[in-house]
Design brief:
The chain is an alpha/beta fold. It is built from 4 helices and 5 strands; from the N terminus they run ββαββαβαα.
Length: about 100
């Protein structure tokens, strides 16, 4: 499948925990392979743990390696709290704007 015609994909996960990690990793990898730009809207995330944070880091690093654009947007309060806890906000470089 050519990625020339498929530009932006928007993903909107609800939970990003160890229980969803395998499914989210597969979704993130497939989406990154098929699109030039990815936006992950985090406004509906009500649960996130270290596995979710690792997925975010992995997706960001994979996008950089593949020279593709990706952004995390509309961060939920839970996501912001986790990013603050691990001092990771600057790593992602996305404007942190509270979603809902």
């Amino acid at each position: 499948m050519s990625t020339d015609n498929i530009k932006l994909a928007v993903l909107k996960p609800e939970n990003m925990t160890i229980y969803e990690a395998m499914d989210l990793q597969a979704l993130f990898s497939a989406t990154l392979a098929a699109h030039k730009q990815i936006e992950v809207n985090l406004s509906d995330v009500v649960e996130i743990d270290c596995a979710g944070l690792q997925l975010m880091v992995s997706l960001k690093n994979d996008a950089i390696k593949q020279k593709k654009s990706m952004a995390f947007t509309a961060h939920s309060r839970e996501v912001i709290e986790l990013l603050d806890l691990f001092n990771m906000t600057q790593f992602f470089g996305d404007p942190v704007i509270l979603g809902k």
